[in-house]
């Protein structure tokens, strides 16, 4: 009875708000075409999307406030716009609650003329627990209902950089991959559980990143279901101690059972990084082992910081391996954080970051 009411209410909301906001009504039609290659981007709100390279973009996961203008524009470029899906797993162990959640999302997507959903559950789950099975069912049932109700819609699921219970996310990756259209692999925050020396390191070291794709592929997940996610942000770590060799020891901040993590640092957008590197004490440095750029700077209190990030040089070999492994595509977290101002240097850097997704 409760879920019946929820469905009814969702239907009513959907009916009320489904007047096409676009200039041309056909722009409200959902995208049905399957692209061989995905450039899957996350947008977190605001109007920077006006400066994206729309000749590349195939899917926008809209994580900001709903923007009808973005939906109309994306559709005019043949790109999908998908909802964000997140829910405490304890709520959707119950089948009725799960169905109600899915129904609600489908109705919301329809009323906003959207093309699917990106499920971003980053919660810890124990293998074999009720939440473990509920999550798998959630993905399967969401995909079924979206495909049925919005023909051609896309259901994707965000996974950690490796399937090996990273951050205690022990999901049924194989069944989840089978049950949706694609997995977005978040190949970043790879220092969320530092087991060795508690020191600053790269957000997404090359070898570790690529090995983890082999782990996914070794599970017999099809490469055509895998989209590589690269970071357009880095980590700024205050150093407790800065050694002669340039090693930056960081504060011990535990995360999901491990004593040291990247939570000792602050995430910084590429836009900030490119300004900060010029006023740094080291300038841009390159770590051969991790194949990543970094720099050191001194803050106003005289404390040394070490900053690790990705730039075209570190992203290129990753993008190359998307091609060589035959993956479905590439994307980033997130599209907003480049410098889209008119400054000629910024323009050049921004163009190079977009282009690095496809070729070097
Ligand atoms: C956008 O991407 C396309 C495809 O890679 C490229 O040819 C074009 O030069 C890019 N546009 C800009 C403005 O950088
Ligand atoms: C159903 O979901 C609601 C939140 O939407 C939650 O408060 C409630 O505990 C859930 N019920 C069950 C039985 O899990
Ligand atoms: C800093 O490192 C040096 C050796 O590199 C060590 O002797 C010293 O105890 C360290 N200081 C702190 C505060 O960790
Ligand atoms: C940073 O320095 C480089 C090299 O000196 C220069 O080309 C560039 O314009 C500077 N970038 C910014 C954002 O000031």
Bound molecules: 2-acetamido-2-deoxy-beta-D-glucopyranose
Just give the CATH class: Alpha Beta
Tell how many strands the DSSP assignment holds: 15
Strand/helix succession = HEEHEHEHEHEHEEEEEHEEEHEH
Rg on CA atoms, Å: 21 Å
The overall average pLDDT, rounded, is 95
Catalogue the unreliable spans.
none
The CATH homologous superfamily is termed: Glycosidases
Report the CATH architecture. Alpha-Beta Barrel
In percent, how helical is the residue content? 25-40%
Biggest pleated sheet: 8 strands, parallel, barrel
Principal-axis shape: globular
Determine the structural class based on helices, strands and strand pairing.
Answer: alpha/beta
The strand line-up of the biggest sheet is 1-2-3-4-5-6-7-15
End-to-end gap? 57 Å
Domain count: the total is 1
Annotated CATH topology: TIM Barrel
Number of helices: 9
């Amino acid at each position: 009875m409760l879920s019946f009411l929820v469905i009814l209410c969702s239907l009513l909301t959907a009916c009320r708000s489904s007047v096409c906001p676009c200039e041309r009504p056909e722009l409200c039609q959902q995208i049905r075409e399957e692209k061989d290659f995905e450039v899957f981007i996350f947008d977190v709100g605001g109007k920077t999307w006006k400066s994206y390279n729309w000749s590349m973009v195939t899917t926008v996961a809209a994580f900001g406030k709903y923007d009808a203008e973005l939906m109309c524009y994306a559709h005019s470029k043949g790109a999908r716009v998908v909802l964000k899906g997140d829910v405490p797993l304890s709520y959707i162990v119950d089948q009725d609650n799960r169905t109600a959640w899915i129904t609600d999302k489908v109705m919301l997507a329809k009323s906003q003329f959207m093309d699917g959903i990106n499920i971003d559950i980053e919660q810890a789950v124990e293998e074999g627990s009720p939440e473990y099975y509920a999550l798998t069912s959630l993905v399967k049932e969401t995909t079924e209902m979206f495909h049925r109700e919005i023909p051609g819609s896309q259901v994707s699921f965000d996974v950690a950089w490796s399937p090996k219970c990273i951050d205690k996310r022990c999901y049924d990756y194989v069944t989840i991959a089978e049950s949706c259209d694609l997995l977005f692999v978040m190949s970043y925050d790879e220092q969320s559980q530092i087991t060795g020396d508690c020191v600053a390191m790269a957000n997404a070291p090359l070898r570790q990143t690529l090995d983890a794709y082999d782990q996914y592929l070794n599970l017999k997940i099809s490469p055509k279901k895998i989209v590589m996610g690269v970071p357009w942000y880095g980590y700024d770590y205050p150093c407790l101690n800065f050694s002669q060799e340039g090693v930056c020891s960081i504060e011990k901040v535990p995360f999901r059972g491990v004593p040291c993590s990247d939570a000792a640092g602050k995430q910084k957008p590429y836009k900030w990084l490119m300004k900060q590197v010029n006023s740094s004490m080291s300038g841009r440095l390159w770590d051969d082992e991790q194949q990543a750029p970094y720099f050191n700077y001194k803050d106003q209190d005289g404390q040394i910081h070490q900053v690790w990030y990705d730039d075209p040089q570190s992203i290129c070999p990753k993008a190359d391996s998307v091609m060589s492994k035959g993956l479905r595509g590439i994307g980033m977290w997130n599209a907003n954080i480049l410098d889209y101002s008119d400054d000629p240097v910024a323009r050049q850097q921004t163009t190079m970051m977009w282009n690095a997704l496809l070729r070097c």
